[in-house]
Amino acid sequence: MHIEGWLESVPAVSVYLLVGIVIGLESLGIPLPGEIVLVSATLLAASQDHINPYILGASAIAGAVIGDSIGYLIGRKGGQPLLAWLGRKFPKHFSAEHVATAERSFQKWGMWAVFVGRFIALLRIFAGPLAGVLRMPYWKFLIANVLGGIVWAGGTTAVIYSLGKVAEDWLKRFSWLGLVLALLFGLGSMLVMKWRSKKSKAAAVTAADSETAEPEPVPAGD
């Protein structure tokens, strides 16, 4: 089957469900590539008229808000033992260093950590469970969670869809090759963003460690 025919045969509801479930699980605290899935699905919507970008964005928002809320409830119920268990299950993402970095962010920024955390891969999987563990008032968490989900999921969908439409119109003469190039461009952009985010977090951790390091004792004068 021609690739365009295959793409047209993909049920729109399956795309909506995939995006909502993956983003929901990631927001709940399970390390999954929610951002990449959202970008790929949005680029697909830009080239396939049967996929509605508004429904797609709404599915992403719903997954983000519901997943974060469930993560909050699990964190509030499980407490610190939950973080220790996650550290054993997902040592790459829930290591003691990452947990400490996220806790410092929450203690310093509060609600803003939940909102801004939606845009940072590491904090995105921490936001819900950690807010519950730290006993953040639910109304504060809910406001930041809903606003963050709308801005991140809705904004990402709108921007990538617009870029995808422009790219699709420009590359339509190349048929499926244009879609492949658009997908590769989107994935490449997300990988660069994640690399920069990782580099920024590493710099922040180094700075925090240097601030907390004890000063060397000054030798007494003669």
Overview of the structural elements:
- By secondary structure, the protein is mainly alpha-helical.
- 81% of the residues lie in helices and 0% in strands.
- The chain contains nine helices and no strands.
- Helix 2 (12-28) packs antiparallel against helix 3, helix 6 (111-117) packs antiparallel against helix 7 (121-133) and helix 8 (138-171) packs antiparallel against helix 9 (176-212).
- It is globular and about 45 Å long.
- The chain starts with a helix and ends in a 10-residue tail after the last helix.
- The mean pLDDT is 75.
- Belongs to the DedA family.
- This is DedA family protein.
- Keywords: Cell membrane, Membrane, Transmembrane, Transmembrane helix.
What is the end-to-end distance? 88 Å
Assign a percent range to the helix content: over 70%
Radius of gyration from CA coordinates: 20 Å
Low-pLDDT sequence parts: none
Structural class: mainly alpha
Q: Name the helix and strand elements from N-terminus to C-terminus, one letter apiece.
A: HHHHHHHHH
Major sheet summary line: none
Mean pLDDT: 75
Residues in β-strands, percent: under 5%
Tally of strands? 0
How many helix segments? 9
Q: Note the overall shape.
A: globular
Secondary structure layout plus pairing:
Blueprint (H helix, E strand, L loop, with lengths): L2 H7 L2 H17 L5 H14 L5 H37 L6 H14 L1 H7 L3 H13 L4 H34 L4 H37 L10
Helix pairs in contact: 2-3, 2-4, 3-4, 3-8, 3-9, 4-7, 4-8, 5-6, 5-7, 6-7, 6-8, 8-9
Concise description?
With 222 residues, this protein is mostly helical.
Task: Give structural attributes.
9 helices, 222 residues, 81% helix, single chain, mainly alpha
